[in-house]
Amino acid sequence: MYEKRLSELEEWVWSVWNNRDITPVEFQKIEEELENIYKGTNDHKCLWILSEMYTVKSIWAKKKITELSRKGFEQESTHGGFHDSFSTSQGGALADFKKRNHYKLIKYYKSYNHENPTYYYSRRILIMNLIENYRFEEAVQEIKEAYKVAGDRAYLLDFLKGDVLYQSGKHNEAIKLWEDTVEANKNNYYCYFKYADQLATYGKYDEALRIYRKSFDMQKRPRRIDSLETMVQLYEIKGNKEMMLNTLNEIIDVYRDDYSIIDGEAGEFYRHRDEILAELKV
């Protein structure tokens, strides 16, 4: 019976995700409920839902930091601390290497993977953090090891291998590898999505938009909206508000037609659409 309750709580977390913060009373009540269920069942899903609740709190804490810091530097533009807080809350670039250095996370996952050598997902996290810190030789070795346990997810490692090539200046080799990977997985919409991600990462926005569209159109219902969400971002970068609006409407349609959701999780996209509509009317 408790499984049904966990499913309800999971749906609840998703419903509030980008729409509102969890109140202190709600949080305490549900935290106690999850802890009690966990004590009686040892079901790891309790820990996962609780961690997601804390993630929601952190999302809304960042929104508050953004609000306060913007208000602050609009009042006193020379106060660098406000700009630092704003940049941090937006996931922006950090000036100091010590703040960008993932050495603790890398150390943890090297140890974790040694103890759990067949777990692919943790290997992928390790590789991504090595690449982000330009530790390419280690990343290449970890990619070789990860191929041994990746199974049908090996194509995802091709994209990481291409990252190392691209960031090492071997642009043509990287793109050729990604193109070959897509050709070998041409019925896999997610492979196209990851290829589009690579193109977008390296500033090839027009081509990325084309591949994101292909990735989305390949899906069967219920469809994921990741491609469309990223397309909205790229259209914003390009200053194309009309295509932003069209794509936001498409996302709203997917929530309605594929998931029967007209509010809750979809609320963020309604708000974004209304903002664009207001701007277009000015």
Task: Describe the protein.
The protein folds into 3 domains: 1-93; 101-186, Tetratricopeptide repeat domain (Serine Threonine Protein Phosphatase 5, Tetratricopeptide repeat, Alpha Horseshoe); 203-282. Helices cover 79% and strands 0% of the residues. It has helices at 2-16, 24-41, 44-75, 80-89, 97-100, 103-115, 120-132, 136-150, 154-167, 171-184, 189-201, 205-218, 226-238, 241-259, 267-281. The protein is globular. The model has no long low-confidence stretch (mean pLDDT 95).
Question: Which features does this protein show?
Answer:
282 residues, 15 helices, Serine Threonine Protein Phosphatase 5, Tetratricopeptide repeat
In short:
This protein has helices at residues 2-16, 24-41, 44-75, 80-89, 97-100, 103-115, 120-132, 136-150, 154-167, 171-184, 189-201, 205-218, 226-238, 241-259, 267-281.
What is the fold's blueprint, element by element?
Layout: H1 2-16, H2 24-41, H3 44-75, H4 80-89, H5 97-100, H6 103-115, H7 120-132, H8 136-150, H9 154-167, H10 171-184, H11 189-201, H12 205-218, H13 226-238, H14 241-259, H15 267-281
Helix pairs in contact: 1-3, 2-3, 3-4, 6-7, 7-8, 7-9, 8-9, 9-10, 9-11, 11-12, 12-13, 13-14, 14-15
